[in-house]
Amino acid sequence: MGDITVLLYEAAARVSATQGRALAAPPFALTRAASLPEAQAALLARTPQVLLLVTRDATDVLAPLVAWVRTHHLPTRVIVLAPQPTVRGATTTLHAGAADYLGLHSGTGAIVSAMKRALVPDDAAPLAPNKTGKDDLISLVSHELRSPLMAINGYLEILQRYHDRISPEKAQDYIKRSLQATGELAYLSDLLVQVLYHETGRMAMTVGPLPLAPIVQAAIAQGELGADKHTVHAHVASALLVRGDALALQQVLRNLLSNAIKYSPEGGTITVTAQGTADDQVCIAVRDEGMGIAPEQMPHLFGRFARLHDVTRWPQIRGTGLGLYICRQLVTAQGGRIWAESVPGQGSTFYVQLPRADARALAPTA
To answer: Which member of 65, 73, 142, 247 has the lowest number of beta carbons within 10 Å of its beta carbon?
Structure first.
């Protein structure tokens, strides 16, 4: 294997002396840039295979740089080294087009491994949107699961390196953030397992009569749902029963509530209502006051890897593009249907319709 050409642009901080020596040694051919014009000139002159970008803000630095690389049709893969890695930073970075995201203080071996991963040949051009099918799922795992993993690693690394200089309050904050990232990792893992179960035909359902109100409350409580920034109201009669699978229905509602929170402004209200219909069905509605969905996106809303927003405009809003796809599969498997209505700029309402159950079905038999 020949030299791997690397451009190091230290926009926010400098790599350590040890890292610098390793990156300047074979098989790497290193060029350094101290400013954006220098980085752009080096990109054009040397066409490096990898750009290592040290930055704190993917929005201000990374996104324009990735756009510039694309405009000039360069094959360079961008890897971000963050002084203080976070879940939001990882999410924004990966959605903005970076090949990987690591903490600045990651070991040299981790950085080298990231560069080698980024240079593995594939059929798609670097920085291009993912292919469909199985490759998309592999890419999703490598990107979405890596975001919380990198955040956890970053917080623990800071605690380990600076434990004697960090206040107890700050240490507790890092621990809290690590636990939140762990919860997100568990949620994403759950989602991916559900995709695999569905696509291998192994999705099992136990459909029967269920009281709806406790399931709605469990879905609200399970995700914690940013209650400090949004208000969630539920209006579901305690006597209302549906025919469904309790765990599957709870997962559907959790996904819909999570989306409502994600796409709503801070201080917005999310409302969950349910009522019986004339044709012996129950219609559950989850309403938000968010950005809404463009009409051209509606036909693709429940497709695999569909996104509700323009990632280039709102890179800070993370998502796998699998939540609504899973919702549709789970609702259909319960004998129901799901759809949405939306006015851009005024919010969206997602509806889940399931067969209504008779109260006598829950009565104990003699």
So the answer is: 73
